[in-house]
Amino acid sequence: MSAPQKKRAAGREKKPALYLAEFNSAGEILHAAQKTHAAGYKNFDTHTPFPVHGMDDAMGLSDSKLGLIVFPIGLMGTIGAFSMMMWMNGYDYPIVIGGKPPTSIPSMIPIMFELTVLFSAFATVFGMFHLNQIPRHHHPIFTSDRFAGFSDDKFFLSIEAEDPKFDVEKTKTFIAGLHASHVELVFDDDKTVEEVSSGHAEAH
């Protein structure tokens, strides 16, 4: 690295990615989610070792938007199957089978059903990928060593720096009021985690 590049790198300010607050029980994380939503934060998430009843309401989550993707795509499958068979059987190569007219609707139902299910299945999978913003092979939250406890017996709440209300000092003060057992500020650029819950900062 050249001298000018080293100088720019040294002067580059660390960019916060998120605050990560750790809790010890499902009741604590549920209460924290309610207060975070009530405070107006939007880009936050909870990470728990098992589903917590009432968490969707506590976070203010609306119903899944997946149905808005699946329904029109499934309908396209239905219409596509109908149009295909109507053209093939009725106009392109009309054949009377079993005494049924080429444009018999009942004879089309199995294929219409199959294409509806097929299109809906693809829409569900790829729509889920889109809404969940995956695949994402890394997230700054994995920088925290303590975060591994979310799959065991710990409960975490993260507030993303992308949230319009995020401010390093104000959000820190807000999280302090949630009475978390541990709080970390996770940075995006240099994989640094700064502990802030014990009144002193320790980077590692």
Assign the structural class, choosing from mainly alpha, mainly beta, alpha/beta, alpha+beta, or little secondary structure.
Answer: alpha+beta
Distance between the termini: 24 Å
General form:
elongated
> Which stretches are poorly predicted, pLDDT < 50 over at least 5 residues?
1-11, 199-204
How much helix, percentage-wise, in residues?
A: 40-55%
Widest β-sheet, arrangement of strands: 2-3-1-4-5-6
Q: What's the pLDDT, averaged over the residues?
A: 85
How many DSSP helices? 6
Total tally of structural domains: 2
The proportion of strand residues reads 5-15%
Taken in chain order, the helices and strands follow as HEHEHHHEHEEE
Which radius of gyration do the C-alpha atoms yield?
A: 26 Å
Kindly state the number of beta strands. Answer: 6
Main β-sheet description: 6 strands, antiparallel
